[in-house]
Design brief:
2 domains, Aspartate Aminotransferase, domain 1, globular, Aspartate Aminotransferase, domain 2, three-stranded mixed β-sheet, alpha/beta, seven-stranded mixed β-sheet, about 40% helix
Length: about 400
């Protein structure tokens, strides 16, 4: 009955695309224990090194003692706990918006927002390298979906002129930091196009929240006041990366949040975020604002890694943040190189199709505030002389 599954999995093994889960035997940190070995962890999205922070653990423990471990129900039934209300107020104040709404994951937040804003008769314009959650949100909206070339504002403008005018509503959708390349969307141009073509703009700051911007609010902090309405820009963030906890959020005008509460199925029909998680996330929001040196350290270390990888012939694409890819080409090459690094005590994942396009498999380095210059230099020394020739710039 399942011969087709066996055939497919065997083909994945042959092409270096087969995936397995590996047991983590320690807490999330820069130094972890995986498969019985101690490794320096360059695989985690725990950018600010808060997942194991004792202050977050204490906040979670206090909330668990008072409110228990689970929310028990949807926020619309009986799950809207005091820690969750406090977290939403803290997020809105930090982001400088009227309100915020917390979801069980960033994936759920993206699905909820896009499906609530677009539907049949509408047109959605999506960057070619958007995260899977944005892609799925576009597909599930049942709107017409047009994909523009990655970070190509001219191509987007052309599609808006040709395909957007007859739509009831137009929606531009983009990540700000792209998770496999570490490059950044031309947000100023996207805002200008949204204004010019009367579009709504949905941006996902998942990998920028807590790391980029003067106050850690992401790429949106780079936007300058201009002849555009802030009410056009709807922002998604995550609690599960730099903030070290779990969940996602949407922030924006109160009427948008009221619409989502009444319209968004992933919110209406999902159990609310657990009180301990909400309390820990609120503490993380405070740490981000109180300790800007964490994000400054991340970006300095990432720049060091980029510079030294280039010096040994590495192709790092257009990376300009804490995510640094080393593009090697074929999936099997990436897997072999990842294994060599692990043999030397370094955990760096091989990213393969479908996560990235065919022929662009890579190692993906995630730099965190807990890494050291010594960690970076060790990576470069292990890679020296081992980078496949086709990855050289």
């Amino acid at each position: 009955m399942f011969a087709w599954i066996d055939d497919d999995l065997e083909e994945r093994r042959r092409r270096g695309l087969y995936r397995v889960r590996r047991r983590l035997q320690s807490g999330q940190a820069v130094h972890i224990r995986l498969g019985g070995r101690e490794l320096i962890n360059f695989s985690s999205n725990d950018y600010l090194a808060l997942a194991g922070d004792a202050r977050l653990a204490r906040a979670a423990a206090a909330a668990a003692r008072r409110y228990g471990c689970g929310a028990g129900a949807s926020p619309l039934v009986s799950g809207y706990s005091p820690p969750l209300r406090a977290l939403e107020r803290a997020l809105a104040a930090w982001e400088g918006t009227e309100a915020a709404l917390v979801f069980s994951s960033g994936y759920a937040a993206n699905l909820a927002l896009i499906r609530s804003l677009a539907g049949p008769g509408d047109a959605v314009f999506s960057d070619a390298l958007n995260h899977a959650s944005l892609i799925d949100g576009c597909r599930l909206s049942r709107a017409a979906v047009y994909v523009y070339r990655h970070n190509d504002a001219d191509h987007l403008a052309d599609l808006l002129r040709k395909q957007g005018r007859s739509a009831r509503r137009r929606l531009i959708v983009s990540d700000t930091v792209f998770s496999m390349d570490g490059d950044i969307a031309p947000l100023g141009q996207l805002v200008e196009l949204a204004e010019c073509f009367d579009c709504l703009l949905v941006i996902d700051e998942a990998h920028a929240t807590g790391v980029l911007g003067e106050h850690g609010r992401g790429v949106t902090e780079s936007l300058r006041p201009g002849p555009w309405s802030p009410e056009r820009v709807f922002k998604v963030g995550t609690l599960s990366k730099a903030l070290g906890t779990q969940g996602g959020f949407v922030c924006g005008p109160r009427r948008l949040i009221a619409w989502l509460i009444n319209q968004a199925r992933p919110y209406i029909f999902s159990t609310a975020l657990a009180p301990p998680t909400a309390a820990a996330a609120r503490r993380a929001v405070a740490v981000v604002q109180q300790e800007p040196e964490r994000r400054r350290r991340i970006l300095a270390l990432a720049e060091q890694l980029r510079r030294e990888l280039r010096e040994i012939g590495g192709n790092i694409g257009d990376s300009c943040c804490q995510i640094v890819p080393l593009i090697v080409g074929e999936a099997q090459q990436a897997v072999r190189l990842s294994r060599r690094l692990e043999e030397q005590g370094l955990l760096v994942p091989a990213i393969r199709p479908p996560s990235v396009p065919e022929g662009s498999a890579r190692l993906r380095f995630s730099v965190t505030a807990a890494h050291t210059e010594t960690d970076v230099k060790r990576v470069v020394e292990v890679l020296r002389g081992k980078i496949p020739m086709r990855s050289i710039v």
